[in-house]
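User: Can you recover a sequence for this backbone? Please restate the input before giving your answer.

Assistant: Of course. Working from this structure:
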């Protein structure tokens, strides 16, 4: 079993930055694909970014490309989401999730961390 805990959310002005952390426990997630997702007020959950396996290939939603960076520190069993140039439309609850195979749904989810961007 894997437990994921997000942290680092908060209130920030437009143009500011935050770094979210997704800390895993229970086992190493160095070989997992880990994604960040978000759900804004009145919106469906959407994909934000993903980092694959220990090699670290990364992919981003068009809405955050060039502003957000996903990374991982396998020694700390943690995945990060650096968010720069934040905009009010980035306001959402941000979740991290992990899966061991592209052919599986994301199996493990954190509880989420709130990010609020004021204009």
């Amino acid at each position: 079993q894997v437990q994921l805990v997000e942290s680092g959310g908060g209130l920030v002005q437009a143009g500011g930055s935050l770094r979210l952390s997704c800390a895993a426990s229970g086992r190493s997630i160095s070989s997992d694909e880990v994604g960040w997702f978000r759900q804004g007020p009145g919106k469906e959950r959407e994909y934000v970014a993903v980092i694959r396996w220990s090699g670290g290939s990364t992919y981003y939603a068009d809405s955050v490309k060039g502003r957000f960076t996903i990374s991982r520190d396998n020694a700390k069993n943690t995945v990060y989401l650096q968010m720069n140039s934040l905009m009010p439309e980035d306001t959402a609850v941000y979740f991290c999730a992990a899966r061991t195979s592209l052919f599986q749904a994301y199996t493990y989810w954190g509880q989420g961390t709130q990010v609020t961007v004021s204009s």
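That completes the design. DSSP finds no helices and eleven strands in the chain.
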